[in-house]
Amino acid sequence: MFRSLIRNFISLAGAEVFTKLITFAAFAYLARICGPAGFGHIEWAAAVLMCASLIVDQGFSSYGAREIAKAPEKTPSLVAEIVTARFLLAAIGYTAIVAFALLLVSDRRVVELLLVYGLSLWTLPLMLHWVFQGHDRMNIVALTQVIRQAVFVTVVLLFVRGSGDLLFVGFAELAGVSFAAAFSVWMYKRHFAGRLDLRPILSAKLFREGLPIGISQLFWVIKMFGATFIVGLVATAEDTGYFAGAMRIYIALHTFVWLYYFNMLPSLSRAWEQGSEQLAEMIRRSIWVVAVASLFGGVVWVIAAPIVMTKVYGSNFLPGGGALQWLAGACIAAAFSGHYRYSLIAAGYQGKEMLATAMGSIIVVVLIPVGYFKAGTSGAAAALFAAEIVVLVCTWLIARRTVFSRPGNGFVTNESSLKTLSDATQ
User: Fold this and answer.
1) What is the 3-class SS of the chain, one letter each residue?
2) Residues of the chain above pLDDT 70, percent
3) What's the number of CA atoms in the CB half-sphere (13 Å) around residue 152?
4) How confident is the model at residue 15 (pLDDT cuts 50, 70, 90)?
5) Can you tell me the distance from the alpha carbon of 93 to that of 234, in angstroms, rounded to the nearest whole number?
6) Over the stretch 124-170, which tens digit does the pLDDT of each residue have?
7) How many CA atoms lie less than 13 Å away from 270 in the CB half-sphere?
8) I need a labelling partner for 227 at 20 to 30 A (CA). Which of 15, 76, 217, 389 fits?
9) What is the mean pLDDT of the chain?
10) What is the rounded CA–CA span in Å between residue 299 and residue 331?
């Protein structure tokens, strides 16, 4: 099983490396031709869109993948229910974006960018990567992501020539999601039911099980993309651009953390069905892998951060180097907490995982403005690091009391595994 996980992760990671490289090229291009202020507008609008997209998802992707992993025969009914529910939520999400843009945003360019960006919410329901995730067909998941980002980058490079062309960034996002959605629907028809059943089937269980995951993802976005949104509310456009540049690199690298657990979730769900010992063994082995990668990657990240900021965005983005260094610690903490967060989801304790993530989000909302006024963008990034440490501690404690609380499961009493975690997070 562990070898299969590694093989799937390599497939996902390979696609992610390619897409992140070309996306970095596109955003570096945008930063250079639009300047810190224009780049800040783009990233701020993207943060708003990310928050709205979670209204559409509501945790249904993780819920659907988990249920398909347990019972593959439920695939057609789950697709019908989740897709139709997400279309209904897309209407709510786009309405929220329109109201926010027209009532609370004064810059006309940003308003137009938000309205175009938001159109992609209508195609998100047809992104069926979670179906292939549940069936462990990560190669299709990877290809879907490649198509999405390749189309986005192509449109940006062809049509954006300066800060006056920001609207085309929104069209690029719309085109990327639309092409990826069309591809995933086509692959679904080839591999599964033959046709996509979009009858409006809804159940209380879907919302009862998916909503806690969705709320948890919302709290996660508050930490990740909401951080740029919060900084944009209290900082200058230039400082927002510096912070957004550091966050763009952080989010790109954090994607590999997310992919690791995205890949593990179906196996964690099946392991939980077999008993907590099987799940504990998977987590124990994974902690060693993450500890080694974090030690090496963290040192390189901190040393290279100022150089990377100037090489990617230009010399005028050097003030963001300190923020990027703090974000190294946040990424390492998130890499460890993922073991416990996804174990709780796999075991059906998504409500408890949601509460732990909420704690981190509250800290972000409170500490980012304080950190910014005390130490600029570096202080804002330090707030994210503090939030991830809180999530790590909370999820570890909750998992010990729930998922791994059975006597003799080899996890709670395994001192070497706990020591690995302790050493790696100090």
Assistant:
1) CHHHHHHHHHHHHHHHHHHHHHHHHHHHHHHHHHHHHHHHHHHHHHHHHHHHHHHHHCCHHHHHHHHHHHCHHHHHHHHHHHHHHHHHHHHHHHHHHHHHHHHHCCCHHHHHHHHHHHHHHHCHHHCCHHHHHHCCCHHHHHHHHHHHHHHHHHHHHHHCCCHHHCHHHHHHHHHHHHHHHHHHHHHHHHHCCCCCCCCCCCCHHHHHHHHHHHHHHHHHHHHHHHHHHHHHHHCCHHHHHHHHHHHHHHHHHHHHHHHHHHHHHHHHHHHHHHCHHHHHHHHHHHHHHHHHHHHHHHHHHHHHHHHHHHHHHCHHHHHHHHHHHHHHHHHHHHHHHHHHHHHHHHCCCHHHHHHHHHHHHHHHHHHHHHHHHHHHHHHHHHHHHHHHHHHHHHHHHHHHHCCCCCCCCCCCCCHHHHHHHHHHHC
2) 88
3) 26
4) confident
5) 25
6) 999 998 899 888 888 898 899 899 999 999 999 999 988 788 889 99
7) 16
8) 15
9) 83
10) 12
- Contact yes or no for 327/250 (Cβ under 8 A): yes
* Contact of 381 with 326, CB cutoff 8 Å: yes
Contact call for residues 333 and 391 (beta carbons, < 8 A)? yes
* pLDDT confidence bin for 419, thresholds 50/70/90: very low
The tens digit of pLDDT for each residue in 76-89 reads 888 888 888 889 88
| Structure token digits, residue 22 | 């070309």
Domains in the chain: boundaries: 1-202, 212-426
146 vs 131, 142, 166, 251, 397, CA distance in Å?
Answer: 17, 6, 23, 17, 37
